[in-house]
Amino acid sequence: MYFYRNAAQMNSREEQLKAFDRLLTIMDELRTQCPWDKKQTMQSLRHLTIEETYELGDAILDNDLEEVKKELGDVLLHIVFYARIGSETNDFDMADVCNEICEKLIHRHPHIYGDVKVVDEEEVKRNWENIKLKEGKKSVLQGVPNGLPALVKANRIQDKVSGVGFDWERPEQVWEKVQEELGELQVEIKNGSVDQVESEFGDVLFSMVNYARFLGVNPENALERTNKKFIKRFQYLEGKAKEMNKSLKEMTLAEMDVFWNEAKKVQVQASSSKE
């Protein structure tokens, strides 16, 4: 159970700014006095930033708000760190970072800061992508990072092209596409090469990601929840095997299945107790 503070208990804007100033001061001190912090570069921090971002993602999926707060602090530290490094070469500082995003948000929300009228979220997204193209982007997909994991990238690609009207109209149409791709995969499994099977398998995954979007489901979150669920069930199975002084290789599939179903019941009960 989480303890939620009400609005009256939250920090004031003045207190929030004071806390941010404190972080900037600590960063300055660490950069000039700590041997490790003094040696860091943007390149050396990059992989750590990615790691912290994934840890934040895990905390969000687990709905562990205390951990979310901590991980947000870690990510914020990295942002402040990069800004400090940028200031040392006179390229940018924290104020430049903040002002840059402020100007971008104002420019891309003309329905808030201008006279543009919108009727719903979808129109906001279309306006956003059109404004980006007017800013000099050569492609709607230019903003999709090459280094994104494939599943996340597929979702971002589909979300972005949808923003300019390239989309299906109804979920039923997308499901028909999924079935079509499954049929093509089956054909290649019977007759095709490994490369052809891989290509069709990719088409199935891409269409499933699209279907998830129409259902309002984030496919990355959905798959990660299943990963976590599988890990817990398998570790329960391992624990039972250990209690029996057996290795998993010594157990039959029928024996494993008994404990697997037990693990499912345990998870359901744990989920119900949290609610």
| CATH superfamily caption of the largest domain | MazG-like
As for the number of domains, it is 3
Spell the H/E element sequence: HHHHHHHHHHHH
> Helix content range of the residues, please?
over 70%
Look at the structure and give the mean pLDDT.
90
Taking all Cα atoms into account, the compactness measure Rg is 25 Å
Total number of β-strand segments? 0
Unreliable runs: none
Write up this protein.
The chain folds into 3 domains: 15-106, MazG-like (Helix Hairpins); 144-219, Helix Hairpins; 220-274, no CATH class. By secondary structure, the protein is an all-alpha fold. It has helices at residues 13-33, 35-39, 42-61, 65-88, 94-107, 110-113, 121-134, 150-162, 171-191, 194-215, 219-243, 253-274. The chain is built from 12 helices and no strands. The termini are close together.
Task: Show the helix and strand layout.
Layout: H1 13-33, H2 35-39, H3 42-61, H4 65-88, H5 94-107, H6 110-113, H7 121-134, H8 150-162, H9 171-191, H10 194-215, H11 219-243, H12 253-274
Question: What's this model, at a glance?
Answer:
It contains twelve helices and no strands. Helix 1 (13-33) packs across helix 4, helix 8 crosses helix 10 (194-215) and helix 11 packs across helix 12 (253-274).
Which properties best describe this structure?
single chain, 275 residues, mainly alpha, Helix Hairpins, 3 domains, 12 helices, 0% strand
